[in-house]
Amino acid sequence: MGATIRVAAVQMEPMLGQVSRNLGRIVAGLEHAASEGARLAVFPECALSGYGFESREDGYAHAVAVDGPEVAAIAKVAGKTGCGCVFGFLEKDGEKLYNACALVGPGGVVGTYRKIHLPYLGIDMHVDPGDRPLAVHEINGLRIGVQICYDGSFPEASRVLALLGADLIALPTNWPTSAECAAEHMIPTRAMENTVYVMAVNRVGVESGFRFIGASSIADPAGNVMARAGDCAETTLFADIDPEKSRTKRLVRVPGRHEINRIADRRPAFYGPLVEPNGR
User: Fold this and answer.
1) Catalytic status, residue 180
2) What pLDDT is stored for residue 280 in this prediction?
3) Are 51 and 16 in contact (CB under 8 A)?
4) For position 208, what pLDDT does the model report?
5) What span, in angstroms and rounded, lies between the C-alpha atoms of 11 and 202?
6) Is residue 73 packed enough to be buried (19+ CB in 10 Å), middle (13-18) or exposed (0-12)?
7) Cα–Cα dist 101/171, whole Å
8) What is the mean pLDDT of each successive set of 10 residues along the chain, which is 280 residues long?
9) What is the pLDDT of residue 38?
10) How far apart (Å, rounded) are the C-alpha atoms in residues 132 and 186?
11) Which entry of 46, 83, 101, 115 is annotated as an active-site residue?
12) Are 224 and 196 in contact (CB under 8 A)?
């Protein structure tokens, strides 16, 4: 339909608390993705810091600021290579601590996202809940919405990003054992039900007693899995995506007889309970 954009999902093994080492791995992964023609590379949740911190104090000690030298170093490589980047990190903002992602384009940081839905696991037991609305940012002509791990289990969040015009939903994750169903089924489902590309980028390895299952994947707007990684090795997945396929919401299967539009055919007047307080 239109010009394609190559994206890369960098499945890696961050080391807990080794920010300098992890930064070097992100830079190397970004450079490799760019050398293969990628215009966007996505890394796992907490790729810069690791995830399994057992206290807020320990997590905060390995957190960085958005305007700090670590993010600047990644932005420098994005500028040099022309390849944008989404990566997970622990963000410190004054006394606040967030499980966050930075979106970096060739011209620098274009946006950040702070995890909204927090499971009782790892550093998420100790961080502050995300306090900013879902948003879509553009990098290299691609409209990108970001969620983090557990956020993907809430279909409302993906639908909001689709309504905001996302071509691609990037989902950096730290899926441990027991998340196999999400890895296999949730990603193509979110792609199909919103007519968008979805990229889940998980980590591998063992950290703080948990084994992480890899299984990163990229799904197209029809829900077809374009690429999937294994469960234990560091690897980079590539896919060539066509933003026009995300932007064409009306699907004509049989002209005049079978046509659907999962955005225009919604009935918001019936969805009121979705925005009622959950009682907790």
Assistant:
1) no
2) 63
3) yes
4) 95
5) 6
6) middle
7) 10
8) 91 98 98 98 98 98 98 98 98 98 97 98 98 97 98 97 98 97 97 98 96 98 97 95 96 93 96 86
9) 98
10) 24
11) 115
12) no
Q: State the pLDDT at residue 1.
A: 57
Nearest 5°: phi and psi at 4?
-95, 155
Give the orientation angle of helix 155-163 with respect to helix 187-194, to 10 degrees. Answer: 40
d(CA 194, CA 219) in angstroms, rounded, equals 12
Tokens 């409209």 belong to residue = 143
Torsion, CA 230, CA 156, CA 192, CA 228, rounded to 10: -10
Q: Which residues contact 233 (CB under 8 A, 6 or more apart)?
A: 11, 204, 214
Is 149 tagged catalytic?
A: yes
Catalytic residue from among 45, 70, 91, 207 = 45
Structure tokens at 212: 């992480």
Q: What stretch of H or E contains 254?
A: strand 251-254
Q: What amino acid is encoded at 18 in this protein?
A: Q
Q: Which of 46, 85, 101, 149 is catalytic?
A: 149
Alpha carbons 194 and 154: distance in angstroms, whole number: 13
Distances (CA, A) of 118 to 6, 44, 100: 31, 16, 12
Does the active-site annotation cover 80? no
Tokens encoding 262: 């999962």
- Distance of alpha carbon 44 from alpha carbon 10, whole angstroms: 7
